[in-house]
Design brief:
With about 180 residues, the chain is mainly alpha-helical. It has ten helices and no strands. α3 packs antiparallel against α4, α5 packs antiparallel against α6 and α8 packs antiparallel against α9. The longest helix is centred in the middle third of the chain and has 17 residues.
Length: about 180
């Protein structure tokens, strides 16, 4: 087969799922705008959900999902926020920031340490230079009773940045307690 024949077949072939592009409607754009400008958090979150359901371009959907996450945090809707982050990870499993956000949310807001740990460990694996990820992992390991690993993660955070715990007093207290052989405060 010649190069020209291969190109002709490629151009004439029906587009696959990757080639299909979501057409954004005016209604979707209006709902996305409502999501952004609404003052009342419940109404804003509803507008965000509605805009995502109607269909947005990938770039606008990303922005609306970020706005929805902020609105859900204000509403303390931790379960829905965890679900939103989990959906984002299905689309991009290598997103260390989202992985850490989900892990921290599971740990601190929902107190689901066992579910938080794999996300926090993966965030550190993906971005080992990010000190905040190591601190969150250290706190989760401490909560799980994995003292030596927790101390290792917190010590590594301080090795990377000697001021790492300056703005995280609970993490500093946890590290001090672990070093003294005490339980996590």
């Amino acid at each position: 087969m010649t190069v020209a024949a291969i190109l002709a077949l490629a151009l004439l072939a029906p587009p696959g799922p990757a080639a299909t592009r979501k057409v954004e409607t005016r209604e979707a754009r209006d709902k996305a705008r409502d999501c952004e400008v609404a003052d009342e958090p419940t109404a804003a979150a509803a507008a965000c959900r509605s805009a995502l359901a109607v269909g947005l371009s990938p770039a606008r959907a990303r922005s609306v999902r970020q706005l929805l996450a902020r609105r859900l945090a204000v509403l303390l809707a931790w379960g829905e926020l965890a679900q939103l982050y989990a959906e984002d990870l299905k689309a991009d499993p290598e997103d260390a920031a989202t992985r850490n956000r989900l892990g921290a949310l599971l740990l601190f807001a929902l107190q689901r340490t066992d579910e938080a740990l794999p996300h926090l460990e993966e965030a550190v694996r993906l971005r080992p230079e990010v000190v905040a990820y190591r601190i969150d992992l250290g706190l989760a390991l401490a909560a799980a009773g994995r003292t030596a690993e927790a101390l290792g993660a917190l010590d590594e955070a301080v090795r990377l940045d000697e001021n790492a715990l300056a703005l995280r007093p609970a993490a500093a207290a946890t590290r001090d307690a672990l070093r003294a052989g005490k339980a996590w405060p």
